[in-house]
Structure formats: structure tokens, C-alpha cells
Amino acid sequence: MNYKLLAERLLPGEYPDPAFYEEKYPARDLPKGAEVTRLAPSPTGFIHLGNLFSATADERLAHCSGGVLYLRIEDTDLKRKVDGAVEAVIKALKYFDIKFDEGAQIGGDETYAPWYQRQRAEMYRAFAKKLIEEGRAYPCFCTEEDLAALREEQTKNKEITGYYGKYAKCRDLTEEEIYKNLDAGKPFVIRLKSLGNPENKFKFHDEIKGDVTVTENDQDVVILKSDGIPTYHFAHAIDDHFMRTTLVIRGEEWLASLPIHIELFHVLGFPLPRYGHHCSLMKQDGETRRKLSKRKDPELALEFYRKEGYFPRAVKVYMLTLLNSNFEEWYLKNPDADLNEFPFKAAKMSRSGALFDLDKLNDISKNELSKLSEGEMAAFLEKWGAEFGTESQKAYFADEEKLLRVLTLCMGVGGKKRRKDFTTASQAMQFIKFFFERPAEHEAYRVTDGDRRAILAGFLRRYDEMDDAQVWFSKVKEIAAENGFAAEMKDYKANPEAYKGSVSDVAEVLRIATTGRANTPDLYTIMQILGDAETRARIQAEI
RNA sequence: GGCCUUGUGGUCAAGCGGUUAAGACGGCGCCCUCUCACGGCGCAAUCCCGGGUUCGAUUCCCGGCAAGGUCACCA
Questions:
Q1: Which of A160, A216, A323, A330 suits a disulfide with A200, CB 3.0-4.6 Å?
Q2: What is the pLDDT of residue A414?
């Protein structure tokens, strides 16, 4: 068979030879040990926590080693394309501190562009043509029906499904048959002519999983689809070679196709990059657990976390906690360090899939938020509010001086102990709501109506905005005593039957009357912030 | 079903031949306290199962079992 002629018929025209591309995309000039990693999403625009998990690993591995992180778009499947998707992905990741050095829509060094696979079509064809010329790839005219029938037969016979060995019908087509099909205008794909033997197994070192057992590939996989666009496998080999990726970090669902990739790199004459297959973030689904999915877990979309107002650093801390088992310990010792100083290692990545734990994230969020100054918190809330806040919430930012006082109180700034009430921005806004809006609803009072009125009226009679906290509280005690409540907690505990309740019950009445709730930070300070008129008005309304 | 991967408390996990089997989250209890939050103290809860190897296995070997992944002209 004249492969040269066949190649020309299949992919007519002049294509550059491999040397041209090797020169066009030269090896990167980076320090020793620097990793080049990449994120290569398909442009569906949807991106969830699992993607961030993976992206964080890519980003850390690249930047901890003085290397490069780039963004490549795998748009070889037209059915998946969504407009504006790339921008959406970049924006979502940027919020969580994932910054690309180069890539689609990024700018930066254009040496390795283009970053969209559809724009690299010529290169893929050039290498496919070369493979055909070498007799290592061939046209296949099998239809979808043919393949379905084949699969059915193999399944019935309990054989491995796929296009391989004796089942690879088109592999053995004669020259005459091929040209006959071509003349008849039959559509075709280009398949790899695999030389592997599945009997052969060997060890392969995975940067995350350690040594894994790999079986030689014998599948004649499609490398060029009938529309001339490469499959993932083929594009992966060519792109990661010419973009000079050193470390391919991807989900473990790719481990099964590693043999294909190894053969492809080999047949193309490219050195193999190193690989790290990470486990997927799992979600409990009834009795079992499964990896995060786009269709089933919309609530795990990155957008959800932005909308709820999770603090970016908190999410990053959680990702690092899951990603590197020694991170948590390091962070405990270096609570104020730049997260990027943590020595991130692929080998420290977990080998088993972790369940996503919202409780843990929330705990981290509280801690991170509590470290902010009131000014930083105000800035964070304002930024969140501008995009996701209601109109009434946006109004909180008009009186900045008041907002800062509120935040100082609610965060315990200046005190020996910081408060940790806020998990997210949206929750914080709910928490501080009563400072800016009169409570529409009040939690139930636990004293009788008569006592409530007496307590509130007694307070109004005594309240003086100029009192300091001690004087203020002594007045609350007076009211307690006056109405049959114990002024001192010790007295109440010693003899609970003698009283209707204690100062705490009296304070609770005042608290509910002014804020609508039974649980708040220091009431005295709240009244100071609200001001005399507002405090009195709220209490009067509850008498 | 074949192949690959994984199996330490409810969750994330350290440990890698001898440990009272770390720590964090969550749960529960107590203390602090005008409530809440914070903080402090404490409690419950774990080595998938069965065989070996060994004086001794959570750690090593073999076999089960379970879970996850994968078997496309999708990535």
C-alpha cells in the first residue's frame, strides 16, 4: 500500500513538517524544576467546586515552582460550546485567586498561542497526515450503526468492547477498497493503528497516586473525527507537547485512557509529560457517594459561593485543606502567612476522594472573616452588596460611619476576643439588619405581658444615653429588682424559686424590644449606635 | 462484566512493624456570662473482613468484600 498517496488523498495539501512546529513552539526557558501546568476546560461555561479544586492544584504547582499556568480551551466538541463561557470561567476562577499567566482571553506571552483547539486544526491534521504516511493511522468508514452492532456483539460474547485487533475491520481494508469507499464519498474518521498488546502490563509513576499498573493500549482510537477535528486524546498529545506542559494534572477519570495517551505520545515521537491524577470531590447522594456533576449539583456551582458571599480566601483555605493533607497543620502554625508560602506538593495530594463538607467550609469562613478589620469587612460587604444585595441592603452603605461602628461591635474588634458570627456576606447582612431597619417581627417574649410593659416602661423612665455601660447595667438591675426578678445571677441560682427570673430575663425583654431578637451582641452598645430617639421609639412600640 | 484506583471515628485526616491510634470539623456535656458569639475544659466515636509472615500487625503478603472510575466520531 502506498501510504504517501493515501495520506495525500485523505488530507490533501501542503502541511508543515514536525520540525517546523518544534521550532515554532520552542522549549520554555524556565528555571530547573519549574512546572508548566494547565487548565483545559471545554467551553460550557459551567464551573463548580470540583473544577476549582483541580485548578487550585494546577495553580499552586505551577507557581510554587516558579512555573507557568495557562488556560487552553478544549472546544473540539461543538455541541458543548456556550457563548461567553471562557470569560465566565476566567471571572469565576479569578474571584478565588486563580490567575493564569497565559492563555485564551488572558493575553500575556503569545508564543504558544492559539489557545483554542479549533484554531489549531492545521497542526492536528499535519500530524495525522504524517501518521498516515507512516502507516500508523488509517481511514475508517464504519458508521455509528456498525460500531453499535460491534459493541453489541462483543458484549454478548463477553469480550472487551471497542475497535481493536480482529474487530478493527477497516484496518485491513485493501488499497482498492479504501479508494472505492473514498470515490463513493463515504465519510471517514482517522484511527490510530495500535501496536500495543494488552497482555503487557507495566508500572507507571503517577505524581499523585504513586506507582500504578498500566496495560498497553490496543484500541485503534479515533484521532481525527469525520469533520476533521481531533478527539481529546490526539489534541492532548499535540497540545501538551507543543505548549510544553511538564505536569498534566487531571481528574482520575482520565487514568483509564492513560495507555492511549502513552501510545500516542510515543507514535508521535514526543517525550511524555509527567502526570498526576487527582481524586474527585465527592458528594453524598443518598446511600452512596459520587463525584460532583454539572447536571446533578447546580448548588455546587462556583457562582453559588459568590452569590452567597463566601470570602474568597476562606474557599481557598478549604481547597488547600482538602488538597494537601499537611496544609491544615501548617496553617495552624502560620495563621497570618501568605497562603502562597505554603509548599504545595503533588505527592501530598489525597489518593482517595473526599466528601465535600459544608460544615468545615463554614467554620473556615467564620475564622477568616473574623480576622478582618471592620474596614476590610465593610469593603467586602459593599462589594458583595453592589452585585447581590437588595435595595434596602445597599442603603446600609450610605452611612459609612455607622456601618463601621456596627461592624466593630459585631466583630468584637478591639476586644480581647473576636466574635465569629459571620459565615458569608449575605448572612452578615442579615445579622446587621436590625441596626438599619426596624425589626418587622419580634421573637416571643418569655415574660408575661404585664411584666414586659413594666420592664420597658421602667427602662424608658431611667434611660439616659450619656450613661456609661456600668451605670446602664445597674439600671437594668434596678428594673429587675423592682419587678420581682433577681438583680444578681448568683442570687437567682442560689434560690430560683424566690424570683420570677433574673436580670438575664429582663435584659432579654429589652433586647427583643429593640432588636427583635433574643440573641445579639452587647445591648448597651447597640443602643448607643441606634441613638436615643430610635432606641426609645422601638421600646415604646413594644409597650 | 473486564480493567484501574481507593478503603483509619459521622466528615477531612496523621501515623507506614511495638503509640494511651495525633489534630481539625461536626455532635454532646460543663465552665465563663445580662443573651448570643468568642474562649476554656471534658465526653462519645475509628484502623472493611479472613488468612498468613512475625515475639508482635492499622502498618508487610495473599484472598475476599465494599466504594469510586472507565470501557464514544464527549471531554
A1: A216
A2: 84
Nucleotide nearest to A493 (CA to C1'): B33
- Distance, Å, A412 CA → B8 C1': 39
Same-domain pairing of A152 and A249 = yes
Contact (CB, 8 A) for A296 and A48: no
The tens digit of pLDDT for each residue in A384-410 reads 999 999 999 999 999 999 999 999 999
Residue A33 φ/ψ region, left for φ over 0, alpha for ψ in the -120 to 50 degree band, beta for the rest:
left
Residues A216 and A125 in one domain: yes
Find the residue closest to B2 using CA and C1' atoms.
Answer: A160
Is A51 a member of any domain?
Answer: no
Query: How many residues in chain A?
Result: 543
- Does a structural domain hold residue A229? yes
For A297-308, the pLDDT digits (tens) are 777 889 999 999
* Residues A148 and A253 grouped into a single domain: yes
Q: Are residues A268 and A141 in the same domain?
A: yes
Q: Where in the sequence is the domain holding A259, given as residue range(s)?
A: 3-15+121-272
Instruction: List the grid coordinates of A188.
Output: 471517514
Provide the CA A431 to C1' B33 distance, Å, integer.
21
Distance CA A297, CA A122 (A): 38
The CA-based diameter of chain A, rounded to the nearest angstrom, is 110
Could you tell me the distance in Å between the CA of residue A279 and the C1' of nucleotide B11? 17
My answer on whether A200 and A147 are in the same domain is yes
pLDDT band at A265 (very low <50, low <70, confident <90, very high): very high
Which of the listed residues A333, A348, A369 is the one where a domain comes to its end?
A: A369
Provide the domain count of chain A.
Answer: 4
- Integer distance in angstroms from CA A30 to C1' B36? 55
| DSSP assignment letter at A500 | S
Is A302 a domain residue?
yes
Nucleotides of chain B in contact with protein CB (under 7 A) are: 1-8, 10-14, 22-26, 33-39, 67-75
Does residue A429 form part of some domain? yes
Mean pLDDT of A347-352: 90
Measuring CA to CA, which residue among A35, A225, A41 is closest to residue A116? A41
Of all nucleotides, the one whose C1′ comes closest to residue A290's CA is B68
Question: Binning pLDDT at 50, 70 and 90, where does residue A490 land?
Answer: confident
Average pLDDT over residues A498-526: 95
Residue with cell 439588619: A433
